[in-house]
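User: Can you write out an input/output pair for a complex, sequences first and structure second?

Assistant: Here is one pair. Inputs:
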Amino acid sequence: MDPILRMTGISKYFGTFAANEGVDFDVLPGEIHALLGENGAGKSTLMNVLYGLYRPDKGEIWFDGQTRHFASSRDAILTGIGMIHQHFMLVPVHTVLENIIMGMGKEKGFLVKEAQLEKEVLEIAARYGMEINPRALVSELSVGEQQRVEIVKALFRGTKLLIMDEPTAVLTPQETEELFKTLRRMSDEGMSIILITHKLNEVMSVSNRVTVLRDGKVTNTVMTRDSSEYELTRFMIGRELSPACREGRCCGDKLVLELDHVTCEGEMGNHTLENVSLSVCAGEILGIAGVDGNGQKELAEIVVGLRALKSGRIFLSGEEIAGKSILEIIGKGIGYIPEDRHKRGLVLDFTIGENLILKDYNKKPFTKGGLFDFGKIHGHADDMIKKYSIKTSAAGRESEARKLSGGNQQKIVVAREVDKGPKLLIAVQPTRGVDIGATEFIHKQILKAKENGTAVLLISTELSEINQLSDRIAVVYKGQIMGEIPHEAFEESLIGLMMAGMTYEKAMAANRGTGQGTKASEFLADGHVPAQNAEPTKEQVNA
Amino acid sequence: MSALDKRIKDAFLKPGARRWSVYSLLVPIVSVLLALVLGSVLLLFIGINPLEAYWYLIFSNFSNTYNIAEVLVKATPIALTGLAFTFAFRTGLFNIGGEGQMFAGAMAAVFVGLKTGHLPAFVTIGLCLAAAIVAGGIWGFIPGVLKGVFGSSEIIVTIMFNYVAVYLLSFLVDKPLREAAGFYPQTDMIGENAFLPFLIQNTRLHIGLVVAIILSILVYVVLWKTPLGFRLRAVGYNPDGAEYAGINIRRNMILAMVISGALAGVAGFTEINGIHHRMMDNFSRNVGFDGIAASLLGGATPGGVFVSSILLGMLQTGASAMQRGVGVPANIVSIIQALIIILVLAGNMMRPKLEMRLKVKRQEREEREEREARKESQGYQEGGTDA
């Protein structure tokens, strides 16, 4: 079969930086082709070249029977290339139909033939098994539904090749599954799809072929079914990944953090945390699993004093810390990697050196006689940059945090919070938005801290991360702890049911009842059933 | 910080424009020159030769010692209110109340000067200075508390507090502190011991200039070389991040406003004890706002503020010479000053783009040179094989 798209020898330079160099890439009709690579590997550049947003410095694009020179994205759209960006390009105050037909020229003439266009739109949606309501306002739609509108919009424009840039980044697992179904249907109908992603499991589950980019060059193009996640990782980062791995349970008997029936109120007076009791020992990692927004942030913030608790008590090494000031609590030896490094963890306009002393700026040895000792501050910065292999910009330790990549920004936070050897380390989403290499590195640092006797409270929505690092796992749902299991009993389906609101006992029963994990996850994907089950459970707890 | 507050602040100084680069110098210099060019169009409209007018505007300042001293006399309070604005700005606060804080300082200085003018000079001057610092500090403290505790916009509150100070001053010179003669709405002269010593004989240049220089250095050291400044700047750049690091945001916001107000208060002290030696209605108007202009022009750095305030001082003293020389209304200088501000703002908005373009150009040039160097060396090699 002839490819519908062939890109040969594409090179694109920004200054001296080669974003793409000699890239060959092709897509067959009806194929889902994954474009895989770490942040900054050149995926987006390549696609922007294809979509007419950048002009390549070298190379040729051959699409749908002839060589093309796209001067703008309009040219690309007219020849049948559609692109759905990570951030949707929809007008929220317009209806779905208005968004779909906007800018197509079909609204020419004095009156818009809405009824007819609506029929066409519904036909297209039905053909690919998508449900949309053309009269709904975009602002009223969920993220998944908005994405569907974007897809229909592209289809309506006669797209033959659809580029999707990290389409699952904003979706829930259920919405992701729904999207993949649609994509498979579209590929069955002969549509070609390029899926830009850095998530391996998605590549494995939906694509036919994969092209892996690294440092702007293609490292390999393989059939998905002939490859494995392991192999793709190697192509992607250019070396064997040695994932950080916990070594057995070394939990001492020294209790470090203890939460005793902690309840905390949100802005609306609702309970963001309810009756939470937890404990973490020295040298132990307690993982908190849960769907985002179920009280994880609050849990971390009440421990460090950023948020007041309504009732309950918090002990650090036996000493009550609830109600103390943030400064006092930090001083007792708590390291805290916050979930949002831009908002909390860093002052982006400060240099690396300044960010590294954000919590110790007024302590020895950085301050002497009321003035900063810049020799010490710079020395500390250089040490940390080396020890935590932070890649700085040209300005070295004077680089502003703003100018670094997400992974290197996070390394600054990790260096600051871990290096002092805290009694307790709270890590919230420590690897969110961070590339694989940095993730591996950060995981190792967390494990190292644990080995050195730090008690770690790891809060993450990534189950794989929880599984990889935790000695014990507690699941949080709507601010309540659904149950706690040791790592040995880790089972994704079980945790999944608890994440959806079942207590440990119920989840165990349901998990055993359905027998297989796969079935249990379907049960979870449904969403409604466990939630309904959870209601009586909650009342039981309260009674 | 409300969205509106943030937008106003960003418009004044984009975060990118806070960093040092060639543009930190280029933007203000080009803005001043461009403002003069635009002003000359205006002068042409009223039939005046701009070159002649500008000759008076600039060079009259250097014609004799007295005129040079006058420039510095004008620059002194502008530098101080400019420092006040700069200090608050660096901590993320927009203190528009320099004018009011200066008047608060002036009222306190004049009151103390009237009551203690008979004491030895260093005592009475010290007391006047302390009173001005306290009064200016209080005038900053109130908006600071309203901001820190209740979240009110410090921009609005400080603007309002300017009016409170101006009319309080009017009231004071009209009734309670009116001169014994009771003729003009002004106070009596403060005791001669409270006069600031002059730096140059037969000019009005007083020791307040030295105070301004010392405070400039002090502000620089505090902001960039001490933990206190680190804390204040952290709150300014990212309050959430500062809170996370255990820094008390409220307390530091209030502190920043107090220090800012105190700096402006010192300007009131130098004006009273150094120049006027009494307080009258409408004295030294707009100095607080000129300070904002100086801070903006100086890139919100103490050194830049000082240089800019001298420039503004030159424009203001030159304006009267220009009026005398070619009959241009001195107000034209206000227009030029406003143009400078607009152009600096525009320059700061454009700066990130310009810097990016500069960077790309530099990279391209390096790349080209590298390629040529490679080609040359290849050429030599080929030549070698031929032979």
